[in-house]
């Protein structure tokens, strides 16, 4: 039985999805104005691992991770580079997939962009207006926090405390009613992209994007919502307020939050300037070493980043690889049936495989304890290494050992997989193809055609076949 620590109840709870065998899961994705750093990578890797484990446990998982492709940071960076916000987004979404694919982060079922969700966002804001939870001010539409009584249920803050605290709030000259009220729709300013709305041209606030994308792609109630600890308040608190006020239904059943990566005890962040991008680190370490490093700690614990720790991860990773290579070699030369002292050793190895496999699953079931799961993998590696020195163990037993290792490593996303680019189609083209399919599904044929033109502009063609779209080099 899987147990997960729920931030909302502050307890480990037995996980049971709303619909038998089906899990609906959402993770806040990156704002695509730069390469992502190791701290940003932690939630992507953590929740990808949870998804893999859920699938391993027999669940079907619908997984949505968004791209925030419109906000102040996007606008500033695009303006400073003299490109459009969309060009900036396209570029760093490509760069996201470049790193994410190499970190073995599986593609989400859907990766929606905020700017593709404007209709749903406007509808949601309208619903909140109609129900009296939102009001229009000079510079935008705001959520009236005082109207939503359970506000603070996730972060365990009380509204009165928040209102009287000196917590630093984003400062604007708005005429909103309370400092805790947050923006749903920002009215247009000069040199900013905008979309039409009943409250005039403008763009969405950040919090409403996630609520809208969840409702649009997964429905009103989802099973798991993940993100970094820093998102608990106000982002996730606000997501709950907007969604539950609009739908009247429970929004999320299990809230999961991962810890930070610190450098010298300080959180790795772009604003603090103490960050390493995954792209830079990958020049010195294999991408999978970075993933292995991350999973060596429990996801809720902080990680203190250091070159020594990363080197230790690299050494551990090599030990596993060496074991796999060596055992495959020994198995190829082993007898078909166990013989001599191999008879007892084979029986003992078979037992160990069961024992450590179970230890691995138990650790993962205990709030995704990847640190203990990796310890079980190392125990198995040690046992296999010892067994491989005993002559007479049969091929089948040795193969079972390596297959189990591969299977467990695969749950952690640590097997070297061949990605879809086997036939020479780059990831960004495949990404465009899936966006086109999505557009067609939504009967947005104009958009589907624009995307097809973009694919052709980049030297590829796409044709629809009964088996799905087929891409080839032009
Ligand atoms: Zn979010």
List keywords for this structure.
single chain; 474 residues; alpha/beta; Rossmann fold; Four Helix Bundle (Hemerythrin (Met), subunit A); globular; binds zinc ion
- What global shape is seen? globular
**What is the CA-atom radius of gyration, in angstroms?**
25 Å
Q: What is the annotated CATH architecture of the largest domain?
A: 3-Layer(aba) Sandwich
CATH third-level topology of the largest domain = Rossmann fold
Q: In what range is the share of β-strand residues? A: 5-15%
Number-wise, the strands total 15
Protein structure class: alpha/beta
Name every ligand kind in the structure. Answer: zinc ion
- Number of helices, where a helix is a run of at least 4 consecutive DSSP H or I residues: 15
Instruction: Give the H and E element order.
Output: EEEHEHHHEEHEEHEHEEEHHEHHHHHHEE
Assign the CATH class of the largest domain: Alpha Beta
- Report how far apart the termini are: 50 Å
Poorly predicted spans: none
Q: Note the main sheet.
A: 4 strands, parallel
Physical arrangement of strands within the biggest beta sheet? 4-3-9-10
Total count of domains: 3
Looking at CATH, the homologous superfamily of the largest domain is HUPs
Q: Mean pLDDT score, rounded?
A: 92
């Amino acid at each position: 039985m899987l147990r997960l620590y729920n931030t909302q109840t502050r307890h480990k709870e037995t996980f049971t999805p709303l619909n038998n065998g089906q899990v609906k899961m959402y993770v806040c994705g990156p704002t695509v104005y730069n390469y992502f750093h190791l701290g940003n990578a932690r939630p992507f890797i953590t929740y990808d691992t949870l998804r893999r484990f859920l699938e391993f446990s027999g669940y079907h998982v619908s997984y949505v991770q968004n791209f925030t492709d419109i906000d102040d940071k996007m606008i500033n960076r695009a303006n400073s580079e003299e490109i459009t916000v969309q060009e900036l987004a396209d570029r760093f979404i490509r760069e996201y997939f470049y790193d994410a694919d190499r970190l073995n982060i599986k593609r989400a079922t859907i990766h929606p962009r905020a700017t593709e969700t404007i209709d749903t966002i406007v509808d949601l804001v309208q619903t909140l207006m109609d129900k009296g939870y939102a009001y229009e001010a000079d510079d935008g539409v705001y959520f009236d926090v005082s109207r939503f009584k359970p506000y603070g249920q996730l972060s365990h803050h009380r509204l009165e405390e928040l209102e009287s605290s000196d917590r630093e709030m984003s400062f604007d000259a708005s005429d909103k009613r309370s400092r805790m009220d947050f923006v749903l729709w920002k009215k247009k300013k000069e040199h900013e992209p905008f979309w039409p709305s009943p409250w005039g041209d403008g763009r969405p606030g950040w919090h409403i994007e996630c609520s809208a994308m969840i409702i649009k792609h997964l429905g009103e109630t989802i099973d798991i919502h993940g993100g970094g600890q820093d998102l608990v308040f106000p982002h996730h608190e606000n997501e709950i307020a907007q969604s539950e006020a609009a739908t009247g239904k429970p929004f999320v059943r299990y809230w999961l939050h991962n810890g930070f990566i610190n450098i010298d005890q300080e959180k790795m962040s772009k604003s603090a300037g103490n960050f390493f991008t995954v792209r830079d680190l990958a020049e010195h370490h294999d991408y999978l070493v970075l993933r292995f490093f991350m999973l060596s700690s429990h996801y809720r614990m902080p990680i203190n980043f250091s070159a020594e720790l990363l080197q230790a991860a690299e050494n551990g990773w090599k030990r596993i690889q060496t074991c796999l290579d060596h055992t495959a070699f020994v198995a190829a030369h082993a007898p078909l049936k166990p013989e001599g002292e191999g008879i007892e050793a084979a029986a003992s190895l078979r037992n160990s495989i069961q024992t450590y496999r179970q230890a691995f699953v138990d650790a993962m079931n205990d709030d995704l304890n990847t640190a203990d799961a990796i310890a079980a993998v190392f125990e198995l590696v040690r046992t296999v290494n010892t067994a491989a020195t005993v002559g007479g163990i049969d091929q089948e037993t040795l193969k079972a050992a390596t297959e189990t290792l591969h299977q467990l490593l695969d749950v952690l996303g640590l097997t070297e997989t061949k990605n879809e680019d086997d036939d020479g189609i780059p990831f960004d083209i495949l990404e465009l193809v899936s966006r086109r399919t999505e557009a067609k599904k939504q009967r947005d044929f104009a958009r589907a055609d624009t995307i097809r033109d973009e694919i052709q502009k980049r030297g590829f063609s796409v044709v629809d076949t009964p088996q799905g779209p087929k891409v080839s080099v032009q």
